[in-house]
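Model it.
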Amino acid sequence: METRARPTGNQSVVRGVREQLQQFQEKVQICSESFAVHELVDTLQAISQKTHKVIQSRYNLQAFVDRIEGDKENADGAIMEKEVMYARWFLDNMGYLRDLNKQFTEKIYTPLTQLFNGENAITQRSTPAWTKPSWSILLYQKKIPEITELYNDVDMENVFIRLRYVKSRVDHLLEDEGEIDPALFSLASQKVLEGKNLPNHSFIRLMPDVQHKLTTAGSLAERWLEIITSQDVNGRTMISKLERVKTMLGNQLDSLNHEIKTTANKLSSESDDLQDLLAHEDRATLISNKCQSLELRLSTLKKKISQNTHQIEDIEELLETSPANKQFVANLLSDLHKKRKFHDDLTRQTKIVQFELSIVREDLCVELELKPSVIRITNSVQENCEQLETSLEDKKVEKYQLEMALKPVIPP
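Modeled.
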């Protein structure tokens, strides 16, 4: 693997940019400390009360200053002297911020951009494809510091993109003297309003938002310099770091596979228990249904016994009053014998059903007593199953990420 040595000229550029950046950050901090949003709000409200006009842009504010200062004999000049002084300070300060931004562009942003474009071209020519990172491996930068050291070109590109975005926004805010589109503001500057619904809220946010963006630009440039400084890694060191990253990721993957297997086995066991508990929950319903069936059958048997008893009584009454007809009497006696036999059979069946019903009722009482506990246990096991399923899915996603992360550190 080729060694990426940084030319001496680049070191000189970095040193010069660092000095300019330190001065820039100090000046931005002084500007931020000298601005108080309540003074701007008070001034704008005072101007609105005295002129019946709402200041919503630098153009409006400059026009106000020019009108007051242009008419020396106007009594408004004396009345609004304090407001004019603050407005002039505000406009001068915005001009100073514009100069700071120009200084940042010429002394910091442009040299870094040129350096980045040159380094990027060198990287494309000299870095093997298998050392380029996937999105997955960058997820493990915090756990494995070597990843950041190996793949800081991606970090540099991200910093470059973010800085370019912030730079374009601050350029627009400083150049446009009309009403500002709120979409250009950062969320950080929203705090200066403190929930106030002011008609010129966008103009009030202008200076603190520009200061915040310049501070952010300085921080990004500082990060950019840190990345450039840390890029002096020779080929042998890179291979060593790649092997360490590969080993650490591989160990994590092995551990994760073991966790997946353990979780899957536990989930399977818990699922079986859950099915048994769900079946037990249905047992009370099944027993209740059986109890109702036996009660219906017992009721039917009792009705048959009652009917059969009446029939026996009718036959016995006929025998007492029947004529001396032997054949008729013989038939009655035969029917009576059958009815009594049927009665005995019904009575036996009734006793069996009553015994079975008593047992089922006892089972039902036990099940009803246990049901609340069974439901609680079932709910607990079901919750465990859901948590295990979620954990298993998360581990599978993490496994996929680890497998993807291993790809760029394993040469073909």
